[in-house]
Amino acid sequence: MAYTSWRGVVGVIKPTMRPGSLEEFIRLLPEGIGVIPLFLGIQRGTEDEFQAAMVAYEAKVAELAQLKPDLIHPEGAPPFMVQGFEGEKSVVGEWEKKFKIPVVTAGMTQVEAMRALNVKRILGVTYFTGKINETFSRYFKEGGLDVLGMEGIAVAFEDVGRLSSQEVYAHTRKVFLRHSEADAIYMLGSGWRTLDIIAPLEQDLGVPVIHPVPARVWAIQKRLHVRQPVNGYGKLLEAMP
After folding, report:
1. Which residues contact 59 (CB under 8 A, 6 or more apart)?
2. C-beta separation of 179 from 123 below 8 A
3. In 7-160, beta strands by DSSP E
4. Which of 36, 116, 158, 213 makes a 20 to 30 Å CA pair with 241?
């Protein structure tokens, strides 16, 4: 079976059942791009759970491939980042060879966005704490970027969506002032609801903000040969580099 839409179809794999980012993603996509969502059940947000998720991801990629979308986008940066930059490329290459459909991960869209904006040095903010932030930093370093910090907020994985965007703004501003030589701010994870602070952060701090939702909207448009800028959600979607 194959489904079509006049500007293309993307199959997405959401890592959790958490609402919010899917709705944001669909609202920001241009009219005419169809979305087929599937879901995993990641619950704890731990490194061992992320490592084990690849089998489940592949099963969902296979399920989507049967529907013949133009592109498959497994969301959730952490499960792929723990594979390492080259490990992720290897997994994606195997899936593309096996299923004959282009695949792009969240981390890949984010690195591509940084390169498109000529970013060299990033400051990351996350809703994780501890050694896993070092894993995220290593992924971007392997991708050729200088990571000045990967600063987490202490919050339970299941409560991320309850963080106010103002709390995230305050955290981001505070850590940026310690790393003001950064070319860009990177917000890891789409579990928090922070689209509304992208523009204020860019205006106040003078650097672009790489957020997972606009990054995937930008990257999917690029792959489907669509170019429809969106205002109000940061330089990436406004300029469509």
Report:
1. none
2. yes
3. 9-14, 34-39, 71-74, 121-126, 146-152
4. 36
